[in-house]
Design a protein that fits this description.
four-stranded parallel beta sheet, 2 domains, globular, 424 residues, binds Double cubane cluster, Rossmann fold
């Protein structure tokens, strides 16, 4: 394995504390992932990425910077990566999914902030994540109150551009998002020194659409009963998609999909026929947050779909590729991104329709609607989600979860009881 200590030191990281993180991650990954049986061979790539998570990709990003390129760190699936790639930049996800970063986040944020925000801020100020050190600019968005305030804190330390998200989905809101994308293009052009032309944007739209199509192929395989891939493995693929080079991401996901399609033909499955099929909806699960999937699957059920930003919301809906002018392309981008059904919108009925549609497509036995502690948006929307699912005759369990492990046993008990109830 390559020694990256010099690279981390050059990035100004806290090496001592980073060593502590490097010591816990492989253990958690081994317990959660490598203990699974009969995994697809295509998962070897994703295992490798995790084993070098703070090495290989950060080194590629630094190489890009050495060649004059810029790196943009993003926290939300509303940020149009297409713009960044069209300007010759690289966009990389920055959401924090580990409790390890939370205490540093709590130094500057109220404890009653959602763990995803605390971990993201903590990863920056604690200097224990290379991605957060490498990014030349962070791109935030006004989705929830916690994030809005977090950008102000991060902006004291690193350039931050904030995209002002509409809160509704009327025609004037889509037009407003178009303006935000136009403004984002200017910011990216200034940062990179490169112009976003219609030709470059068309290439980037294709690149990102190909990535979405590849991820969708893997998810389509999960509709088979029994499923040829565990929910944990599918989640890992999606989590890594936020960081990886988009062309390589598409290539590896397509390879995995080829294998899964063959497995379906050959009747190879990772769960026995009859295992309960669960859809998890709710807040995103940033790497290395695998807790809920691990609990569900070690209780004997299969997670077959995630209605989440680390799930279907990330790849559903393509950008129209037929536009040839910048104006047309910007409109197409605005339309596609505004199809995301995040709980930050009011009203947000589309999300409930999505969940019910996905339950049918993935032949789901029950839904776990999970929200991260202190996420008021998803917590409040949970009431409508549960009511709609009950009306549709789909069993649902609403849960609140955190990054800490202390609630794991309680969750296991509740999930175990829910699965037992499904078995009746
Ligand atoms: S599009 S879900 S990635 S905003 S969980 S930080 S909402 S308090 S992450 Fe999100 Fe974009 Fe929406 Fe998806 Fe706030 Fe809630 Fe925390 Fe959240």
């Amino acid at each position: 394995m390559t020694d990256y200590r010099q690279m981390w030191s050059d990035l100004g990281m806290d090496l001592e504390n980073h060593d502590n993180l490097c010591a816990v991650l492989p253990v958690a990954f081994g317990d959660t992932y490598l203990s699974q049986e009969n995994r697809p061979e295509g998962m070897a790539f994703y295992d490798f990425v995790v084993s070098e998570i703070h090495g290989v990709r950060p080194a590629e990003l630094i190489e890009h910077q050495k060649n004059g390129g810029k790196v943009f760190g993003t926290f939300c699936i509303f940020v149009p990566d297409e713009v960044v790639f069209a300007a010759g930049g690289i966009a990389t996800g920055l959401c924090g999914g580990s409790q390890f970063w939370v205490p540093d986040g709590e130094k500057v944020l109220p404890k009653s902030t959602c763990p995803l925000i605390k971990a993201s801020v903590g990863a920056r100020i604690g200097r224990t994540c290379p991605f957060f050190r490498i990014a030349d600019m962070y791109v935030g968005e006004t989705t929830c109150d916690g994030k809005k305030k977090a950008w102000e804190i991060l902006a004291e330390d690193v350039p931050v551009h904030v995209m002002d998200m509409p809160q509704m989905k009327r025609p004037q809101d889509i037009a407003k998002w178009e303006d935000e994308i136009r403004n984002f293009i200017k910011v990216v052009e200034e940062q990179t020194g490169n112009q976003v032309t219609a030709e470059k944007l068309a290439e980037a739209i294709k690149l990102l659409n190909n990535k979405r199509k590849a991820l969708a192929r893997v998810y389509a395989c999960r509709k088979a009963d029994p499923t040829p891939i565990s929910g944990k493995d599918a989640l890992l693929m999606t989590q890594i998609a936020f960081y990886d080079d988009p062309a390589r991401c598409a290539e590896m996901a397509n390879k995995l999909a080829d294998e899964l399609e063959q497995r379906i033909q050959d009747g190879v499955a990772v769960f026995p026929k009859g295992a309960k099929r669960i859809l998890i909806s709710g807040t995103p699960m940033a790497i290395p947050n695998w807790k809920l999937h691990h609990i569900v699957e070690t209780c004997g059920a299969a997670v077959v779909c995630e209605e989440a930003c680390t799930g279907t919301r990330y790849f559903e809906n393509l950008v129209d590729e037929s536009q040839t002018t910048l104006d047309g392309q910007i409109h197409a981008l605005a339309e596609r991104y505004m199809k995301n059904n995040c709980a930050c919108f009011t009203p947000n009925k589309g999300r409930i329709e999505d969940i019910i549609r996905l339950c049918k497509e993935y032949k789901v036995d029950g839904v776990i609607d999970a929200n991260l502690k202190f996420c008021t948006l998803y917590d409040t929307e949970g009431r409508d989600v549960e009511r709609a699912l009950k009306e549709a005759g789909i069993p649902v369990l609403g849960l609140e979860t955190d990054y800490v492990d202390t609630d794991a046993e309680q969750l296991r008990t509740r999930i175990g009881a829910f699965l037992e109830m499904l078995g009746e």
